[in-house]
Design a protein that fits this description.
TFIIF beta subunit HTH domain-containing protein; DNA-binding; nucleus; alpha+beta; DNA binding; transcription; Arc Repressor Mutant, subunit A
Length: 261
């Protein structure tokens, strides 16, 4: 076992039976928390204090109906996060696949516990308007392109135009136009830029299939799925079966942005 520890093949299972919550949070919240984690990691303050000052979870129960599951909500209380919405509903999933949480630190992996609660975090009440505003601001920032014009020094233009001896005179010598392969590897672009493109596409058309969005954005399908899981709803039945459409809060944000213009 000592050799496994040294080689990094050791798995710490001391906390295998611990209860763990899994929560999907909006991008603005996760980025704010990541920033706080880095700040606390670089200081002498312990991480548990971050949880105390960052947010609080409220559990609501009905003492007269104990058979009904409790409802959860979250309040952002940290002064560092004053620019993001404060109130969120935590929608709990009743059924999900058996999952475990792992971490990797100190050159070995550790099993943190079993996930027994899974939540989807969404803005609550009046904070929906604030969240829609943040989405519009993020989209507008992604659409701004910082282009620069650079003047080439000591350039004769030889590389800017084809030279006579580079042009084939015999049609047989011309190179055939390469056929674009369908399995060409696609490279991820900036997430904010892709989100802006997708918002624009959904303005033109309310429903899209994954294949159509891959062709329109030229992005990997898995990358688009990650973005659409946050921005869109997948239609499993009905006339639009098999297509994606924007979530209601993003539709409202797009309508407000259009009316504002």
């Amino acid at each position: 076992m000592e050799d496994d520890r040294k080689n990094g093949h050791y798995l710490d299972t001391e906390n295998a039976d611990e209860s763990v919550w899994l929560m999907k949070s909006p991008v603005v919240v996760s980025k704010a928390w990541e920033k706080q984690v880095k700040q606390f990691s670089s200081s002498s303050t312990s991480l548990p204090k971050l949880i105390d000052v960052g947010a609080k979870v409220v559990e609501s129960i009905d003492p007269l109906q104990s058979e009904i599951n409790p409802e959860y909500s979250m309040e952002i209380v940290s002064a560092e996060n004053r620019n993001i919405p404060k109130s969120y509903a935590m929608n709990m999933f009743e059924e999900f696949v058996d999952m475990r949480a792992f971490s990797e630190a100190n050159q070995h992996k550790a099993l943190l516990g079993k996930i027994d609660h899974k939540f989807d975090m969404k803005p609550l009440g009046e904070d929906i308007e604030d969240y829609a505003r943040l989405c519009r601001e993020r989209t507008n920032r992604a659409m701004v392109k910082n282009r620069q014009i650079k003047v080439l020094d000591n350039d004769t233009g030889a590389r800017m135009r084809p030279m006579p001896y580079f042009i084939p005179t015999n049609p047989k010598d011309k190179r055939p136009v390469p056929v674009k392969q369908t399995d060409v590897k696609r490279f991820r672009r900036d997430r904010g830029e892709i989100e802006a493109i997708m918002f624009k596409l959904f303005e033109d058309q309310s429903n899209w299939t994954l294949k159509q969005l891959v062709q329109k954005t030229d992005q990997p399908a898995q990358f688009l799925k990650e973005i659409m899981n946050e921005l869109c709803v997948y239609n499993k039945r009905g006339s639009n079966q098999g297509t994606y459409e924007l979530k209601p809060e993003y539709k409202k944000a797009a309508e407000d942005d259009t009316n504002g213009q």
